[in-house]
């Protein structure tokens, strides 16, 4: 099999979205943030991605294709913020910590006045859900936004989303896109950040990312968990190596 890494184009979006929902079929966080796997939600997600491609200069979408078949195998969205300087919050010295928060059905949750966007910004209005499900989904998004704003407070490169179609997993496509971003971070001498699913976290650890916080947010419908991870700045040595 021959793999090719290249920029994503708007014409790739239908195949990308099909693979995205297939890849995240068992991820409750994705269902809350992107809705159920229906034709209607595919259209909504396509509009979101099209807007980002057209309006976000910090956003770099990549794809890996199978040259033998021409099929899209994997995709990723990196954010490059060489001068970004968010305010507020703390990583508590970069030490790993674990937290668990009850959502709309618990005694604690994210207050309404919390940040409505974060670096790479998620809209907090989950209009694809109604009633209690919408309230729960929006609580999950607000909590995610709050955590990203608290941790990502420096110039950096951030992996916003990465997924591989289940038919092509374990073939190296995801690793290619992670390496592309970490190489870029190294050349810019910037740290890299990612919010990793439980399944994907080992891949990022292999590529130099370190645990900062384990996050869990529970509601009546969803029980979401992920890792906030940071890859430290690498610098050149006289031998021409990054350390």
Question: Which descriptors would you attach to this protein?
Answer:
8 strands, 32% helix, 6 helices, globular, 243 residues, eight-stranded mixed sheet, alpha+beta
3D structure, described in words:
By secondary structure, the chain is of the alpha+beta class. It has 6 helices and 8 strands, in the order βαααβββαβαβαββ. The chain has an 8-stranded mixed beta sheet, sandwiched between helices. A hairpin with a 4-residue loop joins strand 7 (210-218) and strand 8. Helix 1 (13-23) packs across helix 3. The two termini are 32 Å apart.
Write a brief caption for the model.
The chain is an alpha+beta fold and 243 residues long.
